[in-house]
């Protein structure tokens, strides 16, 4: 079964996606991480994406859809997955429905995480990421054991270029304009859509996500 996590930047899709996927033994389809990995490897795709990412713009749909098509083809049909950061536009949502249809798979649930802009801006300002493994921490809520150091691989944590205060308002604007309309897209589809409060402790939010999906709470 596939679950889409929708919501603005900083709402906690990444953190909640990891908790849910680890709990269920599922895969994760995280397009931001796939793009960051492509950049770190210096591939042509990574170089193309750099320009858009650092400005808080969306990478073109065709690039993203091809990337997700490749990822889907490598995922065994029986393995569940959490989608984080995809789809982000109407074109991506339609393409995903079509690609899954071709594979005889479908989206089981959409979970919309929500929080006030004040909370989003604060979370993004406190976010620190591991450039090597993609793990995400937060100086306000989810500190690493050793300051500024990734718990998993010991790399020095960084503050993403697109998490700098000058880029955040634009990312929120892009979300409102291009991604938020997907709530109406899925509302009009047969896929169940659940609205979950993205404020509170990580465990509380995770419990709310699991409850929305009809899963036992931790
Ligand atoms: P994220 O880590 O999800 O916040 O993504 C970081 C950046 O990667 C975004 O601001 C976009 O520039 C790009 N990106 C990630 N996913 C997508 C997508 N589905 N469509 C377009 N651009 C994306």
Can you tag this structure with a few keywords?
9 helices, Rossmann fold, 15% strand, two-stranded antiparallel sheet, five-stranded parallel β-sheet, alpha/beta, 218 residues, binds adenosine monophosphate
Please outline the helices and strands.
Layout: E1 2-6, H1 13-24, E2 27-30, H2 31-41, H3 44-54, H4 61-73, E3 81-84, H5 90-102, E4 107-114, H6 117-126, E5 127-129, E6 136-138, H7 168-179, H8 182-187, E7 193-197, H9 202-212
Parallel strand pairs: 1-3, 1-4, 2-3, 4-7
Antiparallel strand pairs: 5-6
Bound molecules: adenosine monophosphate (AMP).
Adenosine monophosphate is lined by residues 9, 31-32, 35, 52-53, 56-59, 64, 85-86, 88, 92, 162, 171.
Number of contiguous helices? 9
Low-confidence stretches: none
Proportion of beta-strand residues: 5-15%
Spatial order of the strands in the main sheet?
Answer: 2-3-1-4-7
Counting helices, strands and paired strands, the structural category is alpha/beta
Q: Could you say which overall geometry the principal axes of the C-alpha atoms support?
A: globular
Number of domains: 1
Rg estimate, integer Å? 16 Å
CATH fold assignment: Rossmann fold
| Ligand kinds | adenosine monophosphate
Largest sheet: 5 strands, parallel
What is the helix/strand order? EHEHHHEHEHEEHHEH
Helix percentage range: 40-55%
Question: In the CATH hierarchy, what is the class?
Answer: Alpha Beta
Calculate the terminal CA-CA distance, rounded to whole Å.
20 Å
Number-wise, the strands total 7
CATH architecture: 3-Layer(aba) Sandwich
**Full CATH superfamily name:** P-loop containing nucleotide triphosphate hydrolases
Mean pLDDT: 94
């Amino acid at each position: 079964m596939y679950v889409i996590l929708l919501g603005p930047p900083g709402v906690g899709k990444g953190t909640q996606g990891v908790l849910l996927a680890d709990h269920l033994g599922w895969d994760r389809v995280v397009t931001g991480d796939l793009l960051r990995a492509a950049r770190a490897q210096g591939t042509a795709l990574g170089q193309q994406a750099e320009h858009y990412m650092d400005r808080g713009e969306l990478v073109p749909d065709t690039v993203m859809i091809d990337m997700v098509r490749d990822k889907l083809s490598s995922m065994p049909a029986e393995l569940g997955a959490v989608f984080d950061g995809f789809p982000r536009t109407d074109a991506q949502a339609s393409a995903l429905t079509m690609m899954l249809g071709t594979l005889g798979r479908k989206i089981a649930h959409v979970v919309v995480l929500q929080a006030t802009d004040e909370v989003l801006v604060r979370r993004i300002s406190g976010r620190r990421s591991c450039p090597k493994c993609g793990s995400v921490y937060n100086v306000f809520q989810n500190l690493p054991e050793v300051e500024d150091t990734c718990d998993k691989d010991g790399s020095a944590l960084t503050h993403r270029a697109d998490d700098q205060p000058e880029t955040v308002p634009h990312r929120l604007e892009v979300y409102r304009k291009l991604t938020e309309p997907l709530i109406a897209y899925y509302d009009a589809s047969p896929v169940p859509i659940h609205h979950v409060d993205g404020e509170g402790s990580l465990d509380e939010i995770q419990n709310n996500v699991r409850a929305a999906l009809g899963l036992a709470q931790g």
